[in-house]
Amino acid sequence: MSLKVLNPNAEVLNKSHALHMNINAAKGLQDVLKTNLGPKGTIKMLVGGAGDIKLTKDGNTLLKEMQIQSPTAIMIARTAVAQDDTSGDGTTSTVIFIGELMKQSERYIDEGMHPRVLVDGFEIAKRATLQFLEKFKTPVVMGDDPDKEILKMVARTALRTKLYEALADQLTDIVVNSVLCIRKSEEPIDLFMVEIMHMRHKFDVDTRLVEGLVLDHGSRHPDMKRRAENCYILTCNVSLEYEKSEINAGFFYSNAEQREAMVAAERRSVDERVQKIIDLKNKVCAGNDNNFVIINQKGIDPPSLDLLARAGIIALRRAKRRNMERLVLACGGEAVNSVDDLTPECLGWAGLVYEHVLGEEKYTFVENVKNPHSCTILIKGPNDHTIAQIKDAVRDGLRAVKNTIEDEAVVLGAGAFEVAARQYLVNEVKKTVQGRAQLGVEAFADALLAVPKILAENSGLDTQDVIIELTGEHDKGNVVGLNLHTGEPIDPQMEGIFDNYSVKRQIINSGPVIASQLLLVDEVIRAGRNMRKPN
Amino acid sequence: MAGSIPGFGFKKDPEAYSAKARSYCGGFSMLPYGIQSMLKEGHRHLSGLDEAVLKNIDACNQLSTITRTSLGPNGMNKMVINHLDKLFVTNDAATIVNELEVQHPAAKILVLAGKAQQEEIGDGANLTVSFAGELLQNAEELIRMGLHPSEIIIGYTKAINKTVEILEELVEEGSENMNVRNKDEVISRMRSSIASKQFGQEDKLCPLVAEACIQVCPKNPANFNVDNVRVAKLLGGGLHDSIVVRGMVLKTDAVGTIKRVEKAKVAVFAGGVDTTATETKGTVLIHNAEQLENYAKTEEAKVEELIKAVADSGAKVIVSGSAVGEMALHFCERYKLMVLKISSKFELRRFCRTTGAVGLLKLSQPDPDDLGYVDSVSVEELGGARVTIVKNEQGGNSVSTVVLRGSTDSILDDLERAVDDGVNSYKAMCRDSRIVPGAAATEIELARRLKEFSFKETGLDQYAIAKFAESFEMIPKTLAENAGLNAIEIISSLYAEHASGNTKVGIDLEEGVCKDISTVNIWDLYITKFFALKYAADAACTVLRVDQIIMAKPAGGPKRDPPAGMDED
Q1: At A498, which helix (H) or strand (E)?
Q2: What's a Pfam family this protein contains (chain A) (predicted)?
């Protein structure tokens, strides 16, 4: 072969072998992920190199942690992960869709069809499906006061595919409320304003939404209060510890008195800063029982802590940077970088600040804040893998709600869209296409059915029965989805099963692109150093 | 069903395909399809019922068989040698599973459940692990019968919810109100927890622990802090020499020559008792000999001034959080001040709590408010070690210490674990003082009622619920077996008694008969049971939910030496 002449060590696969390798890899990946799809999907246990356990149903997590090596599979996995990055969900569906496209194509290719023709058909079908999606979607008016019910339905649909039902339903409210909490009209939603904290404690159903903030550290002085009500919150980024001068300085003294004076002088500048804060506290707290809390991004050294404790101030040091931003959003006030011009206007307000100790870890809760624009989802669970599982699910749930608000549309779920789109392609689009590209459209249409098929399969239903029943109903003009418990067709709108519009669009967009690329490969060449293990 | 077990469908294909592929193009070894080929080398992938679910159950069973024999008062001790060659002789399940370093991922879930129980309540870890193991073993039977794991999960979830309901009904009436300062009430609740660790010694140990806990119980019992009950282990003597000290026992000697002070005020300096130093490096500037002499004098004068100030404030004891300077010590002796050094920050904080002192950062004259008070501080020699006993009998003291005596280190360690469990159950009863009958009476009642409940259920869940109920039998069975009794006989007579309405009948292990446990006073805490059962059911369901395991290549850590001194058999 020509390549062998150029590089005798290179390996090459050509023509149908290359194609089959790609098809097989896509099918293999599909096989791995398909048991995860839908609310009835099973859980996979991932064991890391250090023996750490991760339980997941989330396709994205799985693809990230699995350390895939096959080049084709990596390519598909990357697309799926990109899917997650842009729309937050639908990883499993993407992989399944690509796998199914390849599977369908295999049949035609084995019959002697040229991949190029199929790819042309895919392109036509893709455009038609996207147009159909525009017609099919259910518009939702968001405005200033979004319809909470719709958001809940979307969140529930997303969460139920990641967690078991009872927990998913509980998280639904939490997720929707937290997004609505941080939402500001006219501004894009910044999901980073929802802090996700976890505590290894109690049960997973004890997960809750804290309207305020939870910080994963506590005050550092034994005499500070553990619980305070009606608090002024000073958010600051001021160093309250002695810092060595940048230049190499030294002291010269000739008796102990002088040295004492120097020790005092060293402290003076820090003490002055602390004093300014104490003055402010005395000013705002004079004549009432209110408390004063400092949350500082920089350090506070023990002598300063001591001074603050004596003044009855609760001080937290070394807060995370992102929390400084959130604190201001949650409590109001502003973050100050200098104590020189402190005014009462800089202060935020929280109804309750308290510390919770769990073994060695300390948590500080800042709660009962006035109209917060930042909140915390506090995840609880008895062990790390439960917490990690909930964390991934919450992330996806948040994205689903955000997408809905931004899309101002939802798509009927439970396989309804896929079946409807397939019928549309077969019954209408196919007839308008000239020549062999028709077959490409057909392959595409059949591939769409993969999602309802696998949903049925995972629920232990008969795939063929289900599909026939669903397509039958669609032909009659009823838009129906699949009831996973009974296998009967249902109206997803009545059941409140809605998927994200942007997720679906992304799947339809990216799936065929990758499938086409893989189909058009006719040679796989491996060359270069390190390509083979020394043996 | 074949569809849900992906490992099966294509198992044959890859072989066939790879053979073909190899013959065509030789060398592309990653060609065959299937998940194995897509993963990095060293990965393992287990899937399906046989490979994953049943194997997992098997592993969990192995673990629970180990812990099971340690359940209850007559449980056997285990000798565990951990990777540091440290020997543990204990029947505390939390310690056993912790030191076992379980590798199997599914068994690890059980271990985690046990740990969660230990962290949440501090007792009942054995119940959690053993019960979860039993649940899984029964699940295996169900799977062999043909049930799908998801149906078992549904059944188990229903069963645990029902169990919690029944458990609430079994709570002894009137037990929700309890005086946590009444020693007898505390002992009756603590007894079974300590007896399961140190059977036969609970009558000696319980009063000690109860006394220590009651002493430090704050006004609002819910704020009881486990950290305030300290344990000091001193080698020598026996358990009957153990005492409770209102205050602290420090395992160090006093720094100076004054070894005993009574009714004294205490000043605590966290920053050390020494000359002060600047943060920036200082240099003493000296031009001639006279200045040198003067400098030393000024230093001395300064330190003396400070120490004198402390002495003038009325303090007789100085406690330093870090170094004690030679010069400072000299002046302390001169002013008849006792000097203690406590280098641990936490220990120092506890000392502050004991004495009511406020820790000062710098050596200076303390405010009268900052001084603490002790009834006595004395250095004593116990079992060949010098310890400083700090006593404070008055109110405001929030630390007490149980001084344990025993002949070997491992006995002391085991005693300490029993005390820890006792203290933790005190904490649990401060939160929720409700009790349920102990000695397996609750378990049998739960089993009986749950079985009745299962008959009313329609559908496949009823099998799972019935099995869940059956799992409870494991506890009386194990208790009886560990005590050398005939388990089957005991269980059947328990069932008979319960069916006739005596819901408080449990096993009296000493006499080997079934008895109404209210006559022998064996009670378990409701909250311990509640969490243990919940965590166990949770863990069992988690293990059942997994149908695929993907394992990465174990990371290569430093090689450990093979354990020495273990015989082959």
Answers
A1: strand A498-500
A2: Cpn60_TCP1
pLDDT of B4: 38
CB A41 within 8 Å of CB A55: no
Q: Closest Cα partner for A334 from A323, A345, A322, A321?
A: A345
- A371 CB neighbour count, 10 Å cutoff: 8
Contact A184, A403 (CB under 8 A): no
pLDDT of residue B1: 36
In chain A, what residues touch B9 (CB-CB under 8 Å)?
A: 31
Residue B117: closest CA among chain A residues belongs to which residue? A382
Return the beta strands (E) in B289-445 as ranges: 315-320, 338-341, 372-382, 385-391, 400-406, 435-437
State the amino acid at position B58 in one-letter form: D
Determine whether A92 is an active site residue: yes
Q: Cβ of B6 and A257 within 8 Å?
A: no
DSSP code for B370: G
ipTM of the complex: 0.73
Examine the residue annotation and report whether A58 is marked as an active-site residue of this protein.
yes
Q: The dihedral of CA B495, B496, B497, B499: what is its sign? A: positive
Whether A382 and A203 have beta carbons less than 8 Å apart is answered as: yes
Bigger pLDDT: A496 or B19?
Answer: A496
Contact B103 A46 (CB under 8 A): no
pLDDT recorded at residue B243: 82
- 3-class secondary structure per residue, A388-417: HHHHHHHHHHHHHHHHHHHHCEEEECCCHH
Surface-to-core class of residue B240, CB atoms within 10 Å of its CB (0-12 exposed, 13-18 middle, 19+ buried): exposed
Nearest CB among A51, A202, A250 relative to B280 is that of A250
What would the two tokens of residue B197 be?
Answer: 């660790």
Helical (H) or strand (E) element with A272: helix A256-285
Report the alpha-carbon distance of residue A375 to residue A377 in Å, rounded: 7
Based on DSSP, count helices (H) and strands (E) in chain B, helices before strands. 21, 18
Q: Is it the case that residue B339 has pLDDT exceeding 60?
A: yes
Contact B403, B242 (CB under 8 A): yes
Tell me the per-residue pLDDT of B402-446, one tens digit each, with 9 for 90 and over.
888 888 888 888 888 888 888 888 888 887 778 888 778 888 888
Nearest Cα residue in chain A from B296: A255
Of B9, B285, B358, the CB nearest to A254: B285
Catalytic residue among A61, A72, A79, A91, which? A91
So what's the pLDDT on residue B41?
Answer: 66
**A91 is an active site residue:** yes
Are the C-beta atoms of B275 and B302 separated by less than 8 Å? yes
Query: Could you read off the pLDDT of B99-141 as tens digits, one per residue?
Result: 877 777 888 888 888 888 888 777 778 888 888 888 888 888 8
State yes or no: pLDDT of A22 exceeds 50: yes
**Per-residue DSSP letters for A152-194?**
HHHHHHHHHTTS-HHHHHHHHHHHHHHHHHH--TTS---GGGE
Span B255-302, pLDDT tens digits: 878 888 888 888 888 877 777 766 677 777 778 888 888 888 888 888
Inter-chain touch A27–B150, beta carbons under 8 Å: no
Q: Are B528 and B121 in contact (CB under 8 A)?
A: yes
Whether B289 and chain A come into contact, CB under 8 Å, resolves to no
Interface of B with A in 444-473 (CB under 8 A): none
Backbone phi and psi for residue A281, each to the nearest 5 degrees, phi listed first: -60, -45
Among all chains, which residue has been given the structure tokens 């590798």?
Answer: B103
Chain B residues with CB-CB distance to A227 below 8 A = none
Residue type present at position B251: K
Asked whether the beta carbons of residue B276 and residue A47 sit closer than 8 angstroms, the reply is no
Q: Write down the pLDDT at residue B396.
A: 59
Among partner residues A46, A383, A457, which is closest to B550 by beta-carbon distance?
A: A46
Taking an 8 Å cut-off on Cβ atoms, the answer to whether B39 and A68 are in contact is yes
Catalytic residue list contains A207: no
pLDDT for the residue A527: 66
- Binning pLDDT at 50, 70 and 90, where does residue A201 land? confident
